[in-house]
Design goal:
Layout (H helix, E strand, L loop, with lengths): L2 H16 L2 E5 L1 H4 L7 H11 L10 H12 L3 H11 L7 H8 L4 E4 L5 H8 L4 E4 L14 E5 L14 H5 L1 H4 L1 H13 L1 E5 L6 H14 L6 E6 L9 H16 L3 E6 L4 H14 L2 E7 L9 H17 L3 E4 L6 H14 L5 H4 E3 L12 H13 L4 E6 L1 E4 L2 E4 L1 H13 L2 E4 L5 H11 L12 H6 L3 H13 L1
Parallel strand pairs: 1-2, 1-5, 2-4, 3-4, 5-6, 6-7, 8-9, 8-11, 9-10, 11-14
Antiparallel strand pairs: 12-13
Helix pairs in contact: 1-13, 3-4, 6-7, 6-13, 10-11, 14-15, 14-21, 17-18
C-alpha cells in the first residue's frame, strides 16, 4: 500500500469518525451493479442521428442534438426509465459506503443504488430530488441523499441535455447553494466520477474564487494509464497528469491506482480504521473465581473503562452481570472530568432484556442484539466471565457467542486470560489458532500473566493503532 493511500485512509476515516465526511457518487459507482454508464445511455441517441460515442466525446451535446432532431425529449425520458428500472444488485463498494456512519451523499446518478444501500444497512435516507424537497426534513433520518440531476422515477425532470444545464440554476439553484456549503465544510470522496460535469466544475471554481488557497481537502480515485493503453500512452499519461494537477487547484487529491478493483479493499480498510476506536467490552462476574474476587473484578473493569475513555475511545457494553455497573461508572467518571466529553460519544450501553414477553425466544433476541452491538466495534475485549446456574458457578456462554460473532465480524479480539474464567478459555482457543491473530503476537504472554491494569490498557490501545 502506497503512502498516498495510507494518508487517504487516515484522513478520510478521521473525517467519518468526527462527522464531516461526505460522498459524491458518479456513474462508475453504479455500473458494477448493472446500471448503464452515461456513454451506454447516450450511444442509441448518437446512432439515431448518425454519430457515435467512439468519436464524439461530448455526450451532453449528443443528447441535445438528438432532442433537437425529435422536437421534444419524450424518447429520452422513455430510455432513462427503461435503462434505470432494470433489476440491479448492490455492489461491495456501495455496501461499505452506505453502512459507514456518513450522513451526506451527493450523486448525479438517476438510480436508487445509494438509497437502497442505506436502507439495506438499516439506516433511514432523506432523499432530495427537487428544490422543494430541500425545505423539508425527514424525522429520524440517518443520511441525506442529494440527487442533483434528478431521479429515474421522474425522467422528465432529469438533467441530461444542454437545455437542462443552461437552466439548472433557475430550476435547481438551491442544490448549487447546498453543495457549495458542503464542499466548504465537509471532506468529500468522489467515487465513479469523471469530473466532466459542468455544474460541479462551475461550483468548484466559485469556491476556489471565494477561498483562494484555503479550499478544503477532498479525494478522488484515478486509474493510472497503463502500458497497454494503445499507441497514445505517453499522450494519455501527460493528459492525466495535467488533470490531476488541475484538480489539485480545488483541493481534490487524486489517489492513483493500478486498477479500480483496488477501491474495494481501500474502503474496507477505511471501515476497519473507523471502528478501531470503538471497543466492545465483554464480561461478567457473579462469583469469586481464579484468584479474583468480585470486588477486584469491579475495580479492574472500572479503571480499565476510565483509562480507555481518557484515551478517547468509545466503549460499548452489554451491562454484564457483576461488572456492567463498574464499566459505566468508570466511563462516566472520566467523562464528567472534562466539559468537552459527552456521554454518547464515549459510552454506548445495551442492557439485555431478561424476561421473554413475546413469541420470540430470548436466546434468538440476544443473538440478534449481540450482532447489532458488534456491528460498529473494531475491537472486542473479553474479561472474566462466569455466572451462577442452579447454584453452580459456570462459564458465561454469552461471552463465548460474542467471541464467535466478533471473529465473524472481523473485529480485533483481545482475550485477557489473566482475568480467568471464560476469558481464559477464549484465550486458549485463540492461542491454539494464533496464526489468525497476528496482532497479538507481541502480547500473548502479557495477556496470560499480567494483572497490571495499565499494561492491559496499553495493549488494547496499541492493538487498536496497529
Amino acid at each position: 500500500m502506497t503512502n498516498e493511500i495510507e494518508e487517504f485512509i487516515n484522513s478520510y476515516s478521521k473525517a467519518i469518525v468526527e462527522g464531516y465526511a461526505a460522498v459524491f457518487a458518479g456513474a462508475g459507482l453504479s455500473v458494477p451493479s448493472g446500471c448503464v454508464s452515461w456513454k451506454q445511455l447516450i450511444e442509441p441517441f448518437a446512432q439515431s442521428i448518425g454519430l457515435t460515442t467512439e468519436k464524439e466525446k461530448d455526450y451532453l451535446a449528443i443528447a441535445q442534438y438528438y432532442c433537437n432532431s425529435r422536437g421534444n425529449r419524450s424518447k429520452i425520458n422513455e430510455e432513462i426509465l427503461n435503462a434505470f428500472t432494470k433489476n440491479v444488485s448492490q455492489n461491495e463498494n456501495v455496501s461499505i459506503l452506505t453502512r459507514l456512519p456518513i450522513s451526506t451523499y451527493w450523486t448525479t446518478n438517476y438510480d436508487h443504488i445509494i438509497e437502497d444501500g442505506i436502507c439495506a444497512n438499516n439506516r433511514k435516507a432523506d432523499i432530495k430530488i427537487t428544490q422543494e424537497n430541500l425545505a423539508t426534513n425527514l424525522y429520524d433520518r440517518d443520511a441525506i441523499v442529494y440527487k442533483m440531476h434528478g431521479d429515474v422515477l421522474f425522467p422528465n425532470q432529469t438533467v441530461l441535455i444542454k437545455d437542462d444545464y443552461e437552466t439548472f440554476n433557475l430550476k435547481r439553484g438551491l442544490f448549487t447553494a447546498a453543495l457549495k456549503g458542503d464542499l466548504i465544510s465537509k471532506t468529500f470522496l468522489f467515487v465513479g466520477f469523471s469530473f466532466e460535469d459542468p455544474n460541479l466544475n462551475s461550483i468548484l471554481a466559485r469556491i476556489k474564487a471565494l477561498l483562494g488557497e484555503n479550499v478544503r481537502e477532498h479525494f478522488c480515485f484515478f486509474k493510472k494509464v497503463s502500458d497497454d493503453s494503445g499507441e497514445d500512452v505517453a499522450y494519455k499519461r501527460a493528459k492525466q497528469d495535467l488533470i490531476v494537477q488541475d484538480l489539485g487547484r480545488y483541493g481534490i487529491r487524486s489517489i492513483m491506482l493500478d486498477s479500480y478493483d483496488e477501491i474495494t479493499e481501500i474502503l474496507r480498510k477505511v471501515e476497519r480504521r473507523c471502528y478501531l476506536k470503538n471497543i466492545f467490552l465483554s464480561g461478567s462476574m457473579s462469583a469469586d473465581q481464579d484468584g479474583w474476587s468480585m470486588r477486584e473484578a469491579e475495580e479492574f473493569a472500572h479503571s480499565l473503562s476510565r483509562l480507555l475513555v481518557a484515551s478517547d475511545y468509545k466503549i460499548t457494553s452489554g451491562f454484564g452481570l457483576g461488572i456492567g455497573s463498574a464499566v459505566i461508572n468508570g466511563a462516566l467518571e472520566e467523562i464528567m472530568k472534562s466539559k468537552y466529553k459527552h456521554v454518547d460519544e464515549h459510552l454506548r450501553l445495551r442492557p439485555f432484556p431478561q424476561i421473554q414477553s413475546g413469541e420470540t425466544p430470548l436466546s434468538t433476541l440476544w443473538t440478534a442484539y449481540r450482532k447489532e452491538m458488534l456491528q460498529e466495534c473494531g475491537v472486542a475485549v473479553f474479561l472474566f466471565g462466569n455466572k451462577i446456574e442452579e447454584g453452580k458457578v459456570v462459564l458465561a456462554n454469552g461471552m463465548i457467542e460474542e467471541f464467535t460473532l466478533a471473529k465473524e465480524r472481523g473485529a480485533r479480539i483481545i482475550p485477557v486470560a489473566s482475568t480467568g474464567c471464560t476469558a481464559l478459555q477464549l484465550y486458549n482457543e485463540a492461542f491454539s489458532q494464533k496464526e489468525d491473530y497476528p496482532y497479538l503476537n507481541e502480547y500473548w504472554n502479557q495477556l496470560k500473566d499480567s494483572k497490571d491494569l495499565r499494561v492491559i490498557a496499553n495493549i488494547i490501545i496499541d492493538i487498536s493503532k496497529i
